[in-house]
Every structure is written in structure tokens, then in C-alpha cells.
Design brief:
The chain has 227 residues and is α/β, with parallel strands linked by helices. The protein is built from seven helices and ten strands. Bound molecules: adenosine-5'-diphosphate and magnesium ion. Magnesium ion (MG) binds at residues 44-45, 90, 168-169.
Length: 227
């Protein structure tokens, strides 16, 4: 359902050109749990941004179901992104003037035409239990520790119940205990049929994925694990 065909992305920095992606091809099917593991600067966030439709490739194509993301208007692309993806970005998207619970509610509200409040409550209860975030619901983002903020951002991305989860280094600020909570959450979501695509340098987190690719210098260098 996600098909990436030979994409190239470069950035211009003054006179320098940084070739962040140098020909990446990848298929992600419905229900897959795929991790891409690679060092800092290898192009992981760029690839995730391209899959999300936030960064346009210089060359190559990215399909999400019937949509060719790199050919859509910005508006249409934002619509498709909101419809299919729950995205855990490296930098939290929380709105500082709202509490965590308000942030979650608004993220859910914006994504659902049919406002079934019972569905929201069930999903919220599930995420509170899985991530153990009951103690931060009434708190404002600026008052949170890095780990709490990351858990709130994870909950915000997942509250919508989208069919595809994209995650960029979601464990960077988590301690080992919280990484275990996140792993259990991803496994549960995957067992419920969600597609997961994860980029990370953390093998502990990537370990549960059914397919693990090694990423280096803007390219897939090998398959560490395949189901
Ligand atoms: N907006 C940008 N402008 C210029 N260079 C960038 C930009 N974003 C990323 N890069 C560069 O592209 C390369 C890949 O970055 P990135 O995709 O963030 O890698 P990773 O997520 O694996 O750390 C790095 O060399 C980084 O410095
Ligand atoms: Mg990154």
C-alpha cells in the first residue's frame, strides 16, 4: 500500500549539496511492521518525511494506495496524510496552551467526521493504560519532562486510530521502562491490523518489527530481519 520507487532527495546548504537519499525503493504492505535502523545523519527522517508527503523527492515516486503523493497538491496531500497516517515526529507537535488531554481531544476531533465520543473515550482509556499517562493528562506541555512529552506526542499521534503509524525516533527521550511500554503498544497496534513504519537508531525498539532494514548514507544497505 506504500510503494517507494527509487527516490532521491538532496538539500542545498550554501554551496554544498547534501544527498540525503540516494535511491531508496521500498514496499510496505498493509499490516506490516517495518523498522529502518541507521545512524544519525543517514537520512532516516528525510525518508519518513517523504513517506509522510512532507518532503518532495527530486526524483522517484511515492505511492500511498492509489495516490501518488509527490504529484498531489499540498492541500490534497495534507488531506490524504490526515486520513491515513498517525505520525510521531521527532519534534513534538503539542500545542502549549492546551493540556495534554485537550491536545489529544483536538487531535481526535480534527480527524473524525463522525464524532462518536464513546470511541474517543475507549481509545483514550486504551492509550492511558498502555502508555501510563494518567498523571499528565491535566498538565500543560511546557511542564513535562522530555520522556513525558514524548509519551504525550505518541498518544497524540495514535489517538486518531489511523491505519498507518509512522514513527521517527519515538524512543529518543524514553527510559528503558517506557521503551518497553512503547514496544508493547506497537505490538498491540500491529496485532490490531495497523501498519507500522519506524525509523530509529535504537535496536531495542526496532527488535519487534517483522522486517528490519539497515540504512546508511541515504540507502538501504541490507535486510537485518525478514518475516
Ligand atoms: N532541512 C535540511 N537542510 C539541509 N540539510 C539537511 C536538512 N535536513 C537534513 N539535512 C541533512 O541531510 C542528511 C540526512 O538527515 P536526516 O534525514 O535528518 O537523517 P537522520 O534522521 O538519519 O539523522 C544529514 O546530513 C542532514 O544534516
Ligand atoms: Mg532523524
Amino acid at each position: 500500500m506504500i510503494r517507494i520507487i527509487d527516490i532521491h532527495i538532496s538539500y542545498k546548504e550554501k554551496e554544498n549539496i547534501i544527498n540525503a537519499l540516494r535511491g531508496v525503493s521500498l514496499d510496505i504492505n498493509e499490516g506490516d511492521y517495518t523498522a529502518l535502523i541507521g545512524p544519525a545523519g543517514s537520512g532516516k527522517s528525510t525518508l519518513l518525511g517523504a513517506i509522510a508527503g512532507v518532503i518532495s523527492p527530486d526524483k522517484g515516486d511515492i505511492f500511498l494506495n492509489k495516490y501518488r503523493l509527490n504529484k498531489l497538491s499540498r492541500r490534497k496531500c495534507a488531506f490524504v496524510r490526515a486520513q491515513f497516517y498517525g505520525i510521531i515526529f521527532q519534534f513534538s507537535e503539542l500545542i502549549n496552551r492546551f493540556t495534554i488531554e485537550e491536545n489529544l481531544y483536538f487531535a481526535w476531533y480534527a480527524a473524525h467526521k463522525r464524532k462518536n465520543i464513546e470511541e474517543y473515550k475507549n481509545r483514550l482509556t486504551y492509550l492511558i493504560n498502555m502508555l501510563k499517562i494518567d498523571n499528565i493528562l491535566s498538565v500543560y506541555p511546557t511542564k513535562l519532562s522530555g520522556g513525558q512529552m514524548q509519551k504525550a506526542a505518541i498518544a497524540r499521534a495514535l489517538i486518531k486510530d489511523s491505519s498507518i503509524i509512522l514513527a521517527d525516533e519515538p524512543s529518543g527521550d524514553l527510559d528503558p521502562e517506557n521503551i518497553e511500554l512503547l514496544k508493547a503498544l506497537f505490538l498491540e497496534e500491529n496485532s490490531r491490523g495497523k501498519t507500522i513504519f519506524l525509523v530509529t537508531h535504537d535496536m531495542q525498539l526496532a527488535f519487534d518489527a517483522k522486517t528490519i532494514y539497515e540504512f546508511k548514507d541515504g540507502k538501504i544497505h541490507g535486510i537485518v530481519k525478514h518475516d
